[in-house]
Amino acid sequence: MRTFPQSKCCVKLLTRSVYALLSIASRPTLRHIQSMQWLLNRYFLPTLTPSDNADPERIEVPPLDSLLTEYKTPMKACLRDTSLQGRNKAEVERLFKGFSAWISDVSTLYAVDLSIRGSESDITAQKLKFATRKFCERLCDKNGLVPLSKSKRTPLSAPLGHPPNQDIWAPLIQHFDQANEYFIDELLTHMLLLVNNGIIAESDPTYSKTIASWVLWMVDTMGDEAFRKDCVRDLLSGAGSEGGNSM
Predict the structure, then answer these.
(1) What is the Cα–Cα distance from 111 to 40, expressed in whole angstroms?
(2) What is the pTM of this model?
(3) Nearest-CA neighbor of 41 among 112, 126, 104?
(4) What phi-psi label fits residue 92: left (phi over 0), alpha (psi between -120 and 50 degrees) or beta?
(5) Per-residue buried b or exposed e for 192-216, using 16+ beta carbons within 10 Å of the residue's own CB
(6) Which of 4-18, 44-58, 101-115 has the least mean pLDDT?
(7) Average pLDDT over residues 184-205
(8) Residues near 147 by beta carbon (within 8 Å), at least 6 away in sequence
(9) How many whole angstroms separate alpha carbon 219 and alpha carbon 227?
């Protein structure tokens, strides 16, 4: 662990980090003591004493559960009453900006923790790709694309189809498909890793099948023929070599 060197470059980095910290802390969710403690331990202190051998996958990112839950509320309301779509449009757009801000926060955290060096374009790409991957991982957690309740997931007894909650999450996926060049690749890569994970399939088969149904939905609704073939091949391999996992 090295101490923070007194150079113009590092002072500039620290100043940027302070402004980013203030921007993050202005959010209502960071009024909680737990969130402020996270910022101190995971954001500000690493800026002062960055690790020489930091592993990007060990970076602890801020929670996303509250924002995912907040997003579902207006979407479910619109499904129950279509007349609310116009009224809730601004709220949904605000939440999209909240997700984008989360990605931006994580990308800044990545750069600070790892003290990345390189051209500005390379650094920007690394930061965004890492943050997008973490966003996709959180999105695939239970309470996101996969409902907490197993009864609301894709049934094991039914043929693989589109996910039952597609109307809630499809607008978000379509939004970030347009807004983030890495989103679809990172989301599909993570989904296919989950589908092909035998341990997950055995311990929570409805989770695996719901993720598989999202892959199928993406194959059916976006991408070209080569994209579809690659996804179908990887999706089918998730059935395993010993009779499949009920997909």
Answers:
(1) 16
(2) 0.71
(3) 112
(4) alpha
(5) bebbbeeebbeeebbbbbbbbbbbb
(6) 4-18
(7) 93
(8) 153, 164, 165, 210
(9) 7
How far is it, in rounded angstroms, from Cα 21 to Cα 74? 29
**Single-letter code of the amino acid located at 201:** A
Tokens of 181: 């060049």
Residue 114 tokens read as 């790892």
Q: Where are the alpha helices (DSSP H) in the chain?
A: 8-25, 33-39, 45-48, 65-80, 85-114, 120-139, 166-179, 183-195, 198-203, 205-221, 225-237
Assess contact for 153 and 210: CB atoms under 8 A: yes
Instruction: Parse the chain into domains and list their residue ranges.
Output: 1-51, 64-237
Q: What is the 3-state secondary structure (H, E, C) of 139-168?
A: HCCECCCECCCHHHCCCCCCCCCCCCCHHH
Classify the phi-psi angles of 246: left when phi > 0, otherwise alpha if psi is within -120 to 50, otherwise beta: left
Q: For residue 149, what are the contacts with CB-CB under 8 A and spacing of at least 6?
A: none
